[in-house]
Structure formats: structure tokens, C-alpha cells
Amino acid sequence: MASRANQWILLGCALLCGAALPCAALNLVSAEEQPQASTSAPPIASDARLAGDEKQTRFILDLDTTIPFRAFVLADPYRLVIDIPQVSFRLPSGAGVTGRGLVKAFRYGLVMPGGSRIVFDLTGPAKITSSTMLESANGQPPRLVLELEQTDPATFKQVLAAETPELKPSVTDQAVAVSPPEVTPAQPAKPPQPTDSRPVVVIDPGHGGVDNGTRAGEETEKNLVLAFGLALRDRLEKGGKYRVVMTRTDDTFIPLDDRVKIGRSQGAALFVSIHADYLPHGEGEAEGATIYTVSDKATDAEAARLAESENRADAIGGVNLTAEPTEVADILIDLAQRETRTFSNRFAHLLMGEMKSATRLHKHPLKSAGFRVLKAPDVPSVLVELGYVSNKGDLEHLVSDSWRSKTVASMAQAIDTFLAKRLATAVPAN
């Protein structure tokens, strides 16, 4: 029985030496800069189930081979996270939607190239009492089995405080022969290359990986907005006016703060986050696209609800939220934020003017709220909700290639207009 809440379980060879799956806070970079995952077929997860009650709960994951894994708990909110190498999830439809015992629900998906994650929402404080990978036996497939036990908040905090995750791989006693490094003859220095001073546009498809976003039937927000974001990238790159950076180009989870860092590190002239909204049942009917900018106070209750929902993305993805960034109380930062918000609002109005000829807009298409992903103090940023997946008409648009093409064109035109002055002084890349 394991007494540690955070633990590495290494079976066979030390496979995680190269995978280095993340613990609490993920430090991810742009999907374009991430290493490529192995081309070999990943292991298959064929079933996942829960058993037990509110005192003790067991999770079982059926696989086609044994794999290393790492399990740990997080607070605020209470969650259990299992990190594993990248697997192909072929679980029954609806797996994880409903919980049992200490688990409200769970979700799963790719969290980085080469790494998958399962995140459990817990009913309250709990600790891991045992976790093991079982070999195939007696007609049963290889299984990851984890036991949870109810605990009290004080004990839970003590466990978290005492545990410092160890990311060092296991070291075997077997000697490893190391070849001397190859020596490459010195090459003559290349002439300096012209600097690409084209404006940088960052496109941020929301959600991804373990975070599906909203869902309607088989359609998930993460896939709908990725398709739109890639189409917008292709349209902008075809024009050659901008250097376009995507926060993700595949089904990968990117924490909110890392999305902001991508925009700032690239010196972006514009940051466009792409999403699709969902109106909960019983709250009426809504349709059309909405354009959001950041503000300290939401324009209305719906904007506040959406910001709260989108800002929970890190909790959904299993990121440790206990270490919040400190606020920078600096007058220069404050002035920069004011100027940036002015530019963000200007672009939002331009975008609304262009999009209204291509798609339906919400009856109140311009709103603002405290979206974390829009809080870069020096990058004009907007969040575009393309429509409501809960609305039949909007969903038909979201899956339509012709609608996507028209709406992408309108958005590209707004970007051209907004960045026209920057383009006048830009040096094209060779």
C-alpha cells in the first residue's frame, strides 16, 4: 500500500526518462515548437470504470500493454491526476461523464506530445492508498488499478505540503556505453539574414487535449475551433503579410498562462482566441458570434458566466492552481494595459463590422469580461465565440466548410485593416 500522494510508478524499463510528463503546472510552448511524438503506434486504452463508495473508490483502466504512470492529487478544486505516456483512448461512449463514490466525473486526452492525462473531479479531499499496473493474467488484459480513500481537509493539506514530486528517472546498475561526440569541421560564417519584421498574429484555438470545451453530440468545441484556427492561419499565410503563430496545431492541452506567454514571447501585434459557446438548458435561447475583450468588470451576467467557464480550463486540464501569479502594481504596466485595451477594443469593432456580412452575430455582439487568456499587458487581444453549439443553426454553421471559409475571410479582412499601419513599415521575409 502506497502512502505517498504523489508517486512515480516505473515498470519494465524507465520509459518516462524521455517522456518527462508534467506534474502540477505545465510549462508548455507553442505547438509549433514542441517535439514530435514517436511515430510508433501508442498503447490502446479500451475501457475505464469506477467501483466502490463514498469511503473508498477504485479506478480501473484496461490496456493492451503495461505502461508507466504517475498519480497525484491537487487542491482547489479537489482533483486526482494520472499522467501516462501517449495512449489511444478507445473507451466506451460516455466514459467518465458520470462518477461514482469519491469521483464526480473524469476526462482524458492528450496533454502534450507523447503524454496523455486522466483528470478526476473529486467530491472532496481524498488520498491515494494504492496504485499499481497489473500484468495480463487469467484472461484479463493489463490494468492500471488505483485506490482512493476519503480523508479530511487537514490531512489532505499535510499530504500536499509534505510531498515534493520527484521528476528524476530511475537509474539502473547496468553500465551504458556512450559514444564520443562527433566533431564537425568548422564552416565559414554565413552572411546575416534579413530580419523578418512582419507583424506577428497569434491564433489561439481554445481548449484541446484533456479539455474538450463544450460539446453537442459527437461535436466538441476543441475540434471545431481548431479547424477554424487552422483555416484562418492558412488564409493569412497565403497573403504573406504576417508571421502566423498557432498556440496549438493538434489536439494538445495548453495552459492559459502559456497561451499568453506565447503571444508575448513572439512580440505579437494581435492575439485572437477562438471559441464556441454553449448556453445551459433552462437559460433561454441564444445564437450568433460574440467578440470579447478583457475588462475588470463583466458587461453582463452572460459575459461573467463565460469568463468564469473559460478561466476554469487549467483546472479541467489538471494544472495546479494554488500558486497564483502576483499582481504587478507598476504604473508603467498599468499605462501599457490601458493602451493595449484601447487597441483591443478598436480591433473588436473592426471585426464586428466585417463578420456581420459573413455570419450571424449575437444580439449584443461586443462584450467584455475578465478572461485570463486576454490579459497580456502589451498584446492587443480578443476572444471570439463563433456561435453556440447549443443552437442547431449555429452548430450547422460551425461544421460547414463554406461557412468557415466566408467567416475566415471576414476575419482576415479585419486583421488586414487593423494592422495596415504596421504593414507599411514591415520588412518582408526572404
Write the layout of secondary structure elements.
Elements: E1 7-9, H1 16-19, E2 44-52, E3 56-63, E4 69-74, E5 79-85, E6 88-89, E7 103-112, E8 115-122, E9 126-134, E10 143-150, H2 153-162, E11 200-205, E12 215-216, E13 219-220, H3 221-239, E14 243-246, H4 256-265, E15 270-277, E16 289-294, H5 301-310, H6 313-316, H7 331-355, E17 361-369, E18 381-388, H8 392-398, H9 401-418, H10 420-424
Helix pairs in contact: 3-9, 7-9
Short recap of the structure:
With 430 residues, the chain is of the alpha/beta class.
Strand order, largest beta sheet:
14-11-15-18-16-17
CATH topology of the largest domain: Aminopeptidase
Shape: elongated
Helix proportion range: 25-40%
Number of strands: 18
Cα separation of the termini? 61 Å
Query: Any idea what the CATH architecture of the largest domain is?
Result: 3-Layer(aba) Sandwich
Q: Structural class of the helices, strands and pairings? A: alpha/beta
Tell me the number of structural domains. Answer: 2
How much strand content do the residues show? 25-35%
- Note the total helix count: 10
CATH homology superfamily name of the largest domain? Zn-dependent exopeptidases
